[in-house]
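Example record

The entry below shows one chain as it appears in the dataset: sequence first, then structure tokens.
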Amino acid sequence: MSAGRPKVFVEDEALDEAIKLFWKYGYEATSTEDLLAAMKMGKGSMYHNFGGKKAVFKLALDKYFKDFVKNFPKALEESDDHIEFIKDFFRAIAIRSVADYKRGCFMGNIMAELAAIDPSLESKAIEVMKRFEQIIKSEIIKGKESGRLKTKEDPKVLARYLLNLWNGTNITGRMYPDRKELAPLIEFQLQVLS
């Protein structure tokens, strides 16, 4: 009997597919049948391994959160200039595909959709965004202490400003899905990081 792929790997793949689906259609518009097709499993397997749609969604959010918490700080630490890395992170919004502009930000979409539907799921999305805010705030503090940043702004306010920039630019990107339109706007707003 063949050992096959490890269960954790298969589950990660299935959750990655669920993330794509929830990101594209949102929680409410994604049906259980959509999930079964995307995750390439039968109803019994899905319920046995993950539970129902809400449980899959919570696990997908957890995976997205863990991947973000692992990958963003790691890439940040590997960069030579943390402030420039953060600026480039925001600049990358301008070079997305039209399809990516239409999708928007996964966490922002979830918070907007679930605010009135399921406060516990909305709280999970808020947790991810607050983690991002704390990472940015920490880097602003370090940048100010090292002299890399000359700004007099409160690091907490500046971090929230950048979080607002992220959310707002993701929405504006739906209106103007064009690098030529978004890049100057992003550069203008990133002047606070000087």
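Notes for this example: Residues 119-146 form the longest helix (28 residues). The chain has a mean pLDDT of 87.
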